[in-house]
Amino acid sequence: MKKIFLLIGFFGFQLNLLSQNIASARDQGEGAIVTISGVVTNGDELGGPIRYIEDATAGLAIYDPVVMSNVNRGDSITVTGVLVDYNGLLEIQPVNELINHGSGYAINPQIIIPNQIGENTESELVSIENVEFENAGQFFSVGTHNFESGSQSGIIYIKAGSSLENKLIPSCPVRITAISSQYSFTGFDGYQLLIRDENDFEYDGEICLSSGVTQNNISTSSFDVNWSTNISSYSNILYGLTPELELGEINDPDNQLSLEHTISLDNLDAGTIYYVQAFSNTENENAYSALYAFATQSTSSGEIRLCFNNSVDTSVATIENAQFSGVYTNDTIKAYIDKAMHTLDVAIYNHSDALITSAINDAYDRGVRVRYITCASTTTTALGSLNDNIPVLQRPQTTGIMHNKFIVIDANITDSSWVLSGSTNWTSAQIFDDPNHIIMVQDQSVARTYELEFNEMWGSDGNEPDAANAKFGNDKLNNTPHQFIVNGNQFELYFSPSDNTTLNISKALKTADEEINFALLVFTNNQLGNTIAESFQNDIQINGIIEQINTQGSEYEYLLDLGVNVISHQGFGDQFHHKYCIVDHSNTDSDPLVITGSHNWSGVAETNNDENTMIIHDVNIVNQFYQEFHQRINELENQVEPSYNCVGESCVDPLDGSGTYSSLVACEYICSSTSIYESRTQDIQIFPNPNNGRFTLQIVSSEYGNIEYAVVDIQGKTILKDYATITKGLNKIEIKNNLKSGLYFIEFANDYFKFVVQ
């Protein structure tokens, strides 16, 4: 390969006539038109059309999507263009003229120390020796990764689409070669190294982990820890209930050298998070993994419940009919908030519903510790009605958003710990109109993991937030458990942007043997688009629904052109807000699973937003999602707007547009008298419903006693409170009150039942 001094010698006369050296060009500053020559040190590896050029004096970035697209690493070029400052990085933009003198040239990187990453090395190819990464043994994700060399620290940045994305982070000291760059909104600081590919890591033959650390054979009292190394070595782990690993060290009892390592942790507590660090050693060397969080199986019920706010097609049910909650969606959320007896953590992107706000205030009033996180970039009008004593933290307005929609209830109580998540924001349109779902999981290990994520955003595990220590977006770490056993089934959980969520969604998609059905608000993630395309080309049946088909970078047209059955929901009814995907719903010999949560299949969800994603390997839950999907795709394929008829107390869509009611909400107000929560007990009913303020409360009881009940309006105000004595069997309580027309609730034994006064 030619070296830089050969380039200068060969082109010396021409360069003197046409260009100046890069150092003098940089000195001219913004707005200057310069002509420079040098060797290009990167191609498409960094994503997009940016190129870095270097000569014997300095380096400079060049950005021009048209002119630079065919320029490759090792090309010798002369360019003329305007100097601009882009977020602190001096670059030529646009390029007025380009001459490519040929390829095969190279720049020898200069050896520096981390403290020399800065303006004096900007855009130059550099090398640093003895680099150790902070999160060694995990996987590279898009964003920044910290490292140390000696006593100094630095940052590398992995761009979206990089070949290093989702690759193992070196767990032993390496020499790195990279381009020194800058990204800063202020023009100060923000210096970072850009790694081009895996060849920029140089190993010296020391012991190193060659795989990530995984958790297997999870039970209520034990699990196995597995990893691999590049050379035969001994197996050890450090572990504890805190990141300090205070419970000590466990060594391989057989004391055998091996490339494949397994250590079993026994005598553990159920439903508990443990921190683990694996390390392997020879006589002279040690290799340590990153710190991992693993959870034992809990002894909770593992019950998973689903609610869809639009109708479902139960004709394709195989185990249990999916429940649609319609106008009772906020009632259902309130019912779960009412379960909280000790702690209630709320992380919600947007919230305006008064009933849910009232439930949160009631929880605080009965002594529950309430903590509330939202996003400063949304209106969240409920904050104006929230009890002033409830502590609130808002994610500051940045390039990302706090997009979660989850609740954690009594995480430390085995039998009453619940997580509520899904796609639904707590606004009127999202609750009652836009196709959405909520999912409720009764599992202590899952609840404690959500609580751990909440604490990281909250900045503490205390009652009050620590804004100075609060971490959102790229500041968060991959520090929560990901693998669980819930109700006897595998259950995965990932938080964005720290946990390589897109990689894990892609892995789940690749398990498909027969069919993938996705239902998405937005689909712009190229990696997932490619995974869907590859699955289709491997004869997997693909069906999809996308709402925002015209979003920049949408995968819609790409998949259509391949022949994938993907259907636009844009302009059809209300906004399709789901974010779920079903794999092999009907093949129980495969691994039926569903992917759900707040995470849109987009770049910002992967790299900037605070999100949560569940991957649930439970054939019953998978089928319930399929009941919803089957209904939605039938509506789209028939291109008939939803309409509804009352059939008993249910609202049924005849699928031909002939229904009496155009709105499910309107139908359910008239047709149905029970909430999704009540439908599981059926021991309390209201007749008639709707009514004129005179109605009968019918209660079926298994014992004698006194009960308290109340009539509450839509704002949460108590209109009437009274007591009654009930006996075993059927009881009827006549209620007569001059209520105004509207929507009301009967509150009884911490449950709410909805009725309408006409």
Detailed description of the structure:
The chain is of the alpha+beta class and 758 residues long. The protein has five domains: 2-106, OB fold (Dihydrolipoamide Acetyltransferase, E2P) (Beta Barrel); 110-203, Nucleic acid-binding proteins (OB fold (Dihydrolipoamide Acetyltransferase, E2P)); 214-295, Sandwich (Immunoglobulin-like); 298-639, Endonuclease, Chain A, CATH 3.30.870.10; 646-757, Immunoglobulin-like (Sandwich), CATH 2.60.40.10. Helices cover 16% and strands 36% of the residues. An eight-stranded mixed sheet has the order 29-30-36-35-34-31-32-33, with helices on both faces. Strands 15, 16, 17, 18, 19, 20 and 21 form a seven-stranded antiparallel sheet that branches. Strand 23 (343-348), helix 4 and strand 24 form a beta-alpha-beta unit. Helix 3 runs parallel beside helix 4 (354-365) and helix 7 packs parallel to helix 8 (526-537). The longest helix has 20 residues, at 619-638. It is globular, with a radius of gyration of 30 Å. It starts with a strand and ends with a strand. The model is unreliable at 1-17 and 673-682 (pLDDT under 50).
**Structural class of the secondary structure composition?**
alpha+beta
Q: State the helix count.
A: 12
Largest sheet: 8 strands, mixed
Please tally the β strands and state the result: 45
CATH-defined superfamily of the largest domain: Endonuclease Chain A
How many domains make up the 3D coordinates?
5
Share of helix, binned: 10-25%
How much of the sequence is in beta strands? 35-45%
- Enumerate the spans where pLDDT stays under 50 for 5 or more consecutive residues: 1-17, 673-682
Strand order of the largest sheet: 29-30-36-35-34-31-32-33
Evaluate the radius of gyration.
30 Å
CATH class of the largest domain: Alpha Beta
Distance between the termini: 86 Å
CATH topology of the largest domain: Endonuclease, Chain A
Average pLDDT works out at 89
Oligomer: single chain
Shape: globular
CATH architecture of the largest domain: 2-Layer Sandwich
